[in-house]
Write the structure tokens for this entry.
Amino acid sequence: MNMNWTQEQEEVLVAEDIQKEIILHNDDVNTFDWVIESLIDVCEHNPLQAEQCAMLVHYKGKCSVKSGDFDFLKPMCLTLLDRGLSAEIQ
């Protein structure tokens, strides 16, 4: 088996390393409807996906709601924060 890494394999590994996620955390302030509306507006979820994420946040305490590189996620995360949601990029 050839153990030499190709440039393409190295680029894939680097690309995987920079993938981040917006994690939405549960709070006692925002309503389900507001969370769902925010996920649809900001993260471009469809209504079912937004509802499922809201349920996971409520029952599990947090949920990954969007993935991508940091520069792609940062404006979305800031908008969620501006809407009063508890979110972070990990």
